[in-house]
Amino acid sequence: MPVWLREQSWRQTLTAVYLSLPLRGARATAASIFCSEQYLKVSIPPFLFEAVLYAPIDDTNSTAKIGNGNIFFTLYKKEPAMWDSLTLANADKEKLQCLRENAVLKAQEKAKEETEAKKIAKQEHKKYALEATMKVEEAERKRIEDLKEKERQKVTKELELWNNQQKDGDKYKSIQNKEELHQEIEPLKERKNEKMDKMRIPNEGTSKTRLKSTKGRGSCSIFSQSLKEEQLPAPRAAATIQVNFTPRVFPTALRESRVAEEEEWLHKQAEARRIINSDLSELQDLKEEEKNPDWLKDKGNKMFAMGNYLGAVNAYNLAVRLNNKLPLLYLNRAACHLKLRNLHKAIEDSSKALELLTPPVADNENARVKAHVRRGTAFCQLELYTEGLQDYEAALKIDPKNKNIEEDAEKIRHLIQGTMQN
């Protein structure tokens, strides 16, 4: 049975009421206090305080402070006035029940409205982030297209310049060849005319014959000069040069290598490749980095930080299939299952992580504390408070200075005591 808190002290002004409740050694939290416009309730097992206020208050701006074994309420009145008493006089059970139910319904509606507002704000934030990402990608795409266009224009100009230079070179070469040919033909014509003048005699037949023979010799010498081919050097012979390097499997210099770490790394890589080739034939389409458990763990951590818990679970699942000896994979997946309310799976992953975190040494203390806390949280959410308290106490043995774990363990003890008393 609850123990009603009868001791109280209060004072008032025109606009506010100041109420003080002694805790008597009980430990209060924000979840222990419920306040509405005209209803105030404080539930600290085994103590209970309940009051129907004299007039409505502004529950949004009203405050409660816990300290020095007391709860101090500052209740702001909706209408400035002096109250005759703190609670409503002559309130029967039916009216009290009606006020209590109305207060609970209003609190539920308010919580629902706040949840909807947060949901809408989250959607707006995602929409804004998506639009911003699209704008950034569009700007980046435009920048890349501009760079491509500039490079294309530059290459086109260089190609046109090269074509013009080739045309100018061909023209210059043809003109030079014509000039050389003209210089060779002119002296031959002059000599031919001189010979024809000397050989002019009355005998036309003889002159024609001589002219023909002279003409034949002259023409032969002209074309022999013009048809000379340029002598080009022979092409170089092809050959292959072989260069041999010192074989090194691990990409570090010999003077900086650590043989033990290299062998361990190579062993892990070989084991991962063996698993992929033998047991995971359906993963052949994955990229090389997607077959690395450490890369998948980092990807799952990023998704968890972004609130994509289901995507993080998928990343951890694939990483576990590649390497089922990493305790951090099970530990991180247990955190995702807690967020998704997969409580039994969270307990299984936390237990598996604790099995792999052996022997217990100083380096894995933080991981063992997280494993116990996450398993204890899952037990408590399943209302298995005794098992949850055992995990929290085990975490406290590892890290006795952690105040948060100590406070949570104390809350679980109070819950167990309240359950036993009920």
From TrEMBL:
Give all residue intervals belonging to the CS domain.
3-87
Q: Name one GO cellular component term.
A: neuron projection
**Statement: the UniProt record of this protein carries the keyword Cytoplasm:** yes
Q: SUPFAM superfamilies this protein is in?
A: HSP20-like chaperones, TPR-like
Q: Which GO terms describe its molecular function?
A: nuclear estrogen receptor binding
User: What keywords appear on the UniProt entry?
Assistant: Cell projection, Coiled coil, Cytoplasm, Neurogenesis, Nucleus, Repeat, TPR repeat
Q: Which CDD domains match?
A: p23_DYX1C1_like
Report which residue ranges the record marks as coiled coil: 104-154
What's the chief localization of this chain? other
- UniProt keyword annotation of Zinc present: no
Q: Which stretches are TPR repeats?
A: 369-402
- Entry-linked Pfam families: CS
Q: What is this protein called?
A: Dynein axonemal assembly factor 4
Q: Source species, please?
A: Melanocharis versteri
